[in-house]
Amino acid sequence: MSADYIEVAYSRNTAIFARISVVSSALGLGLLLLLHFIQPNLSPLSGFISQYAVGKFGILMNVAFLSFAISLASFAMSYRSLSPSRLLRTGVVLACISAIGMLLGALFNTDSADIMRASPTTIGMLHNIGGQLNLTPFVALLVTFGVRHVDAVKPLWRRMLTISVVVLSFTLGFVITAAWSEGDFGPGSITALFGRLMLVSYFIWQYVALKCLLKNET
């Protein structure tokens, strides 16, 4: 691809989807923060966010997952025709897959810790499949490199790159600590913390990526 930057024409729908994505992710993160305070019994170090859905205020976590699903789908719609790059197209597809994963997380709650250890339910397994479909770290990396020649992204590209590396670092921390824990995520495990940081940092990256579009709206 040429090193020259690509001019992009923005449609009204691009801005609409971008705004929906920003608002949805903000709602999801806000609910997650609220749950952190109203369910303090769940440790942010060893308690996965999915476990909020099992508690008294579980509906809030379901809404948060749904918000994340809408945000990812809207992000894909806003970025889908931004550049001819294969990397971008792949990133958009992975964002759609991640949206499906978040939707599964919203529709099917995880099992409680006791049930998970004894005999996982079908609903719990569907929730786990949704978690495995969360490919957001790769979305950030692929989209960042896929739009590096887009003129509108130029002012914020280095910021997008830096945050995408942070997201990937938290992902590696999650994978390494999960392997180290060998399935035991009780007290002393910090795998859940890396999972939370990975999610939050991804949506910070997504906000920056969408800001590029909104600043160049026509």
3D architecture notes:
- There is one protein chain.
- The chain is mostly helical.
- It has one domain (12-215).
- It is built from 8 helices and no strands.
- The protein has helices at residues 12-38, 58-79, 86-107, 113-118, 122-132, 136-146, 157-181, 191-215.
- Helix 3 packs antiparallel against helix 5 (122-132), helix 3 (86-107) runs antiparallel to helix 6 (136-146) and helix 7 packs antiparallel against helix 8.
- The radius of gyration is 18 Å and the shape is globular.
- It starts with 11 loop residues before the first helix and ends with a helix.
- InterPro entries: DUF998.
- It holds the Pfam family DUF998.
- This is DUF998 domain-containing protein.
Estimated structural class:
mainly alpha
Strand content: under 5%
Biggest sheet: strands, sense, closure?
A: none
Total of domains: 1
- Number of separate helices: 8
Shape assignment: globular
Give the ordered list of helices and strands. Answer: HHHHHHHH
What percentage of residues falls in helices of 4 or more residues? Answer: 55-70%
Summed up, what is this model?
The protein is mostly helical. It has eight helices and no strands.
Topology:
Layout: H1 12-38, H2 58-79, H3 86-107, H4 113-118, H5 122-132, H6 136-146, H7 157-181, H8 191-215
Transmembrane segments: 16-38, 58-79, 91-109, 129-148, 160-181, 193-214
Keywords: Membrane, Transmembrane, Transmembrane helix
InterPro entries: DUF998
